[in-house]
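Supplementary Data S3. Sequence and structure tokens for construct A.
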Amino acid sequence: MGIAYIHKQTTAPVAGALLLLSFLLGGCAASTAGSSLMDAQAYAPPSMPTMAAATKGIAQAVAEEKLTGPIEMSDLRQTDHGPGRFMLCIRAVGPKDSRAATYAVFFDNDDYKGARMSVIMDCEKQVYRPYIASTGPSATPPAPAAAPAPVKQHHHHHQPS
């Protein structure tokens, strides 16, 4: 009887190890099958909004902040201190002696994430250009001007006969 008892004692850890190993291997198989699904949903950092989305976001920010008069905007750039991953700055152009309030406008992809009064590091050193507002929701950006036909160079010289 003592031998059978010892035999049971040694087979239990072996059986336990085999059971554990099969779970581990089974887990591997399951994780590789699901990993392509996980890869498809892997985090992708937000990308820069399209100009159309930025224009729409600026219009929304102008309305929210009740800005009037001509608006200037800066270029879009990446940021790590706002509600969106990308930002641009806008300001209302007032009389030369008034200091225009500047606002930071934030985006993730094409999604407007909000605007706030800018802090010095947001918009202080930006280059501004006029912002041309679209005239309504149906307004489409101006079509690119048709490229002028290439000018043909006259290489042959007319020689007097």
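Construct B, processed identically:
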Amino acid sequence: MTPFCVRDPDHGSHGRERLYDLLRTPALVCAVLFAAVFAEAQTDTLVVRVCDITHAGGFIDLTVYKNDSHYLSDDSFVVCQRLAVSGTRTYVPLVLPAGEYAFVVYHDLNSNGTLDANLFGYPTEPLAFSRPFRVTFRAPRFNEISFLVNKPRDTIDVMLPK
């Protein structure tokens, strides 16, 4: 006799099938509830591959923004990550719900935690965005650098200027 087999005297050796029938219904209910709960909160993994890191040392700072209303303000970011530089390429994994995002990444060469700029406000440390944008006399608008997260797994390559 197997330890997980229920013997049903009325059905002879069909007790195992009856046990499976009993277990199948709660398992199905649990599976449906589990799927319903996590369907709304589905998150996707985005890997940002920061390439062309030319200076050893310092940190890669990546800040992700969700919407246009408070884009680039200090309190409106969704995710902010700081990783030590180790080589010419760094991978930053992000887990984000589906939606529209934009990010800013820079190489903090002197490890002071801020993006350094010259007298005119032009960045002096390597700076890049989630989509190609050439920094001129203004910061990019959210819609100029935004992207959609809608795949279970995706990778974005960002090239830091030299």
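The CA atoms of residues 2 and 16 lie 10 Å apart. The radius of gyration is 26 Å.
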